[in-house]
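[job 0412] stage=complex_fold ligand=prephenic acid status=START
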Amino acid sequence: MKGTVFVVGLGLIGGSMALAIKKEHPEATIVGFDINEDEIRMARTLAVIDEAAASVEEGMSRADVIILATPVMQTEKILTDMLTYRLRPSVLVTDVGSTKQRIIEQAKALLDQGVMFIGGHPMAGSHKSGVVAAKAHLFENAFYILTPTEAVPMSEVERLKQWLKGTKANFVILSPNDHDRITGVISHFPHIIAASLVHQAQQYESEDELVSRLAAGGFRDITRIASSNPEMWRDILIHNKTELLSLFDRWLAEMHRIRSLVEKEKSEEIYRYFLEAKQFRDGLPVRTKGAIPSFYDLYVDVPDYPGVISEITGYLAQEKISITNIRIIETREEIYGVLRLSFQSEMDREKAKQCIRAHTNYETYEG
Ligand SMILES: NC(=O)c1ccc[n+]([C@@H]2O[C@H](COP(=O)([O-])OP(=O)(O)OC[C@H]3O[C@@H](n4cnc5c(N)ncnc54)[C@H](O)[C@@H]3O)[C@@H](O)[C@H]2O)c1
Ligand SMILES: O=C(O)C(=O)C[C@]1(C(=O)O)C=C[C@@H](O)C=C1
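[job 0412] stage=complex_fold status=DONE, emitting structure tokens
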């Protein structure tokens, strides 16, 4: 598609969106703006944007699509400022913020002026920030939630999806309330827990400096997200306050429940507590990232050492099992990578699973 896409906020998500759009629509012009001039310079050096705008207002005046990719409190402010800007009549405006209710509330004034605003949230990311961490494939196979209001015709939602096709994400439409309730449970509250675990370890560290030196795999896995951008998370907590307050109450009740089981040494119940959590966790489609699992995919947890891919493909070749696609989709900190192998049929996938199990002790999962 031809046109000018203006990205405000050239960080991890804004940069990744710019790259994904350019990949699918090379004829589009990507214009960017960031309050941090270093990010603009870096975005140009890395060819994430074609041009830098002189200001938010200047960039918006020539845009066919506007993507707000700033922390959510900044997005709210920009939405207010936009009310006085001169925009193209057919402009499509969207955001990528992790919360939706407050953003949509703010965007109502813009919608009242006839500007097509569609709230958005690509549900993939990282604890890293800044344009240097941006990747064109960041959102591939992830959920991408859209929260159009009734004022937005479906044809405009389809137009936005066409622009965002390069993300290769699975679009899902939700109400802003449902969005904030669900993301509160599976994203926002877990970030609070991760940060609180780090705080707890830090307090113990003052008593014994061995704490951080011994902090190993489990602690690192569960606290990775505590390394995320504090400004972004401060804004999210304030925006989703109501949901989070009720989650705090439920979490405290949950902690009291397990605390009491431990206090009373209820061994059978403690076992069940972990078993039920394991069963639910193991059933999550974690490795596919997205809504629609690709068929005949097999995921293999592989240790991160050179030659491991050729080792696995070698075993499969010996048994004449052909692979249609192979990809490392995720690297867990330092220990494992996840290898995604795709097959033409269910039978091939089953044979591959047996073959890998026979030759290695790597865990395999279906999508
Ligand atoms: N990081 C994730 O995992 C993730 C995933 C999905 C959505 N989001 C959402 O995406 C948005 C951006 O997050 P990110 O991870 O890219 O953060 P980031 O820190 O990497 O990038 C944000 C950028 O916005 C710029 N910025 C801040 N205020 C600005 C303003 N007023 N005008 C112009 N630029 C401004 C900052 O300088 C920074 O470069 C947030 O709303 C966040 O909630 C984040
Ligand atoms: O992988 C991570 O580091 C993330 O925290 C990504 C994550 C999430 O909670 O899943 C963070 C915030 C977003 O709004 C969407 C995705």
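The CA atoms of residues 8 and 33 lie 5 Å apart.
[job 0412] exit 0
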